[in-house]
Structures are given as C-alpha cells and as structure tokens.
Amino acid sequence: MFAQLPPLLRDLKLPLRLQLWDGKEIDLGPNPTVTMTVKDPSVVSLLSRPSLDTLGTAYVEGRLELDGPILEVIRLGDALSEAVLGEEDEGAPERRSRDKATDAAAISYHYDLSNDFYRLWLDREMVYSCAYFPTGSEDLDSAQQAKLHHLCRKLRLKAGEYLLDVGCGWGGLARFAAREYGVRVFGITLSQEQLALGKERVRAEGLEGQVELKLLDYRDLPQDGRFDKVVSVGMFEHVGHANMPTYCQRLFGAVRAGGLVMNHGITARHPDGRPVGRGAGDFIDRYVFPHGELPHLATMVTELSLAGMEVVDVESLRLHYARTLEFWSSNLEANLAKAAQLVPEQALRIWRLYLAGCSHAFQKGWINLHQILASKPHDDGSHEVPWSRADLYR
C-alpha cells in the first residue's frame, strides 16, 4: 500500500509518521513529531493531492487520526500540502446574496454550539474576538481587557453616550463599556444561546438600566441616527460581499452626525476577497462558518466611504490574532476531556483544527485583522476626532 504514495512524499523529509490500519508504519523524515494514522484505505490515494480541505475532512470524518501537538499537526499538514500542490489559490469569489433566514441559520450553527464549550477556552469575559497585546507578554485575560479598552478609547466614549454594539456576542464589550465608561448600550445578536447568557450576565452585574441586548438582524436597525457611537466586532465576516453595501448603509443610518463607527474584523489577503487557497477556505465554509466571506481592507474602506462615512484610522492586529488563537487552542487542548462531554466528537475535531489552523493562517499572513474607525461627518464637513492619537495611549 505504501507503494501507492507519491514519490515526492518520501523526499520531503518531514517529521511525520504514517501508520496504516494494519499497523505498518513509514517515517517521512527523522524524529517524527506527528503520527498520521490512516484508518480508511481510500485516504492513501488522497495523499497524491493532499489539499487542506481533503486532509481536514478525512480527520473530521474519522478516516484518519492525528497524534501530536495540534499546532505542529497544522504546520506539517500545511507543509505537506504546499510541497505537493504549491501555492494554489481559489478563484474569485461569487457574490452570493443572502437573506435573513440564511444568516440566522449560519450564526446559530456556529455560535449556538454550547456556551459551556466556549467557556472552556475563552477568557473570563468570553470575548470571542482578537485580543490586544500592548507589549506581547500579556496573558489572555489581560489582553482581552486591553482590547476592550482599546476599542472604547478609539471610539472616544464618554459617560452618558448611547453605543450600538452590532454582533454583541455574550455581551462582554457591552457590559465593559457600560461599567468602565458609563455609556448606555444597545447590543444585537442572532444567536439565541449568546443572548440568553448575555442577558443573564447583565442582570448579575446590575446593568439592566444601561445595557439592552436583543435578537435583531442588522438590516432592521433603526435609521434615525439615535446612537452616538457604533462598534461592530467580528461581525462583517458574516455579512457577505453582496450585502456589504447594505451593512455599511445601515450603520450610517444608525449613528448621529459627528458620531464614530468602529469595525473590527477579519479581512482577506487578496483584494478580490477570494478564499484562502489549497482548500483551507472550503474547509472553513463547510464546517466552521457557513456562508462566511472575508472582505479586503480596500473593500471595507470603499463601502464605508460610499455609505457616506470617512475612514479616519486603520490598524492591523494580524499577529495579535495569531497569538489570541494560540491561547484559545492551547486552552481547548488542555480541556479535551471536558469538551468531549459538551459537544459531539465531530464538532470537537472541527474546532481543534479550526483554532490551531487559524492561528497558523494569521501567523503566515493568509488573512488579516483590521480595526477600521470611520466618522459620519457633520454637514459642514467637520468631525469630532482628536487632532492626534495621543489620547489612545495615555
């Protein structure tokens, strides 16, 4: 059966051990750090074109097992795929228009898995987005608190202002902004599980008078400019290329003249927004974020501008997200036994690959994370952004 392996695999010298269903083994390099156990004979033929989607799917379906440190598993899987396939890119993405029901189903698939599962590997506030490491040495809890401060400072939040939180998750940012900056917050989500826990935490902290969380689609946001500031964290990845103009227009309509809008989200490497190559994008779309599409930074700047806003500040946090995901992956790996009691086996396999794989993707620069701050100008063209960024770092 090993004779069926492409000769190139034998020449790679990767620290990878292949083990067949009958116990036979072959080392593709010295001192193997990862063992790939093939349980289904058909998997051997797949190794002639080992895309990241093919390898990931075989693992998710239990047709092969991967033993070794999960980040090393991802690194070797990428090296194996790249050696055989080269730098394959996906074609230009389709502009798929989605309705509210489709978006709600996709959000529910990803976020309604289990609150207790997410609690195993997130920080204490359950902030499920890129953390901010001012020095690079912070632990996860400290880095997430620093991220929340960073967002609030960029928005120049002042006591008594009304903040809209689009895609509020479990309410970590909403409660933080209310507690630390004295603002009122209206947060929206499409996840029933997130909403239930978010409301519970709002009540537990006695913030009912300041924080309101609601199940609401961004397309149904009030358009009367009632909000002083708008923050959207990890949200526009779910909007899709075709709906991005509508999304930006709804944010413009929700905020007052002079108000600020912060978009914090994952952005594509390629200007046309094509998925990550060698099947990685296909795997994410099938198993992790159905219908998710990443816009390029240039696309977001264009759409925000067309909606009537002025982009006043952009910051890349790509390496911050690589480190955040490494923390998340490490936390999950340390709690695999508990996680197995909370989610189905296939779901756990997906999440192990997803967290470690995304850390690798951000580290390699396949995807990015940008904070994009925009202002809705006054009629005379003025805005309310300070003359410098000095206030952010005091």
Extract low-pLDDT stretches: none
What oligomeric state best describes the polypeptide chains here?
single chain
Order of helices and strands: HEEEHHEHHHHEHEHEEHEHHEHHHE
Protein structure class: alpha/beta
Q: Predict the CATH topology of the largest domain.
A: Rossmann fold
Number of strands: 11
Integer-rounded radius of gyration: 22 Å
Amount of helix? 40-55%
Instruction: Please name the CATH architecture of the largest domain.
Output: 3-Layer(aba) Sandwich
What is the residue-averaged pLDDT? 91
Give a quick account of the main beta sheet: strands, pairing sense, barrel closure.
7 strands, mixed
The outline comes out as elongated
The CATH superfamily of the largest domain turns out to be Vaccinia Virus protein VP39
Q: Within the largest sheet, what's the order of strands?
A: 7-6-5-8-9-11-10
Organism: Metapseudomonas resinovorans NBRC 106553
InterPro entries: CFA/CMAS, CfaB-like, CMAS, DUF7884, SAM-dependent_MTases_sf
Family: Belongs to the CFA/CMAS family.
Domain DUF7884: 12-76
Record keyword descriptors for this entry.
single chain; about 400 residues; alpha/beta; Rossmann fold; 2 domains; seven-stranded mixed β-sheet; four-stranded mixed β-sheet; elongated
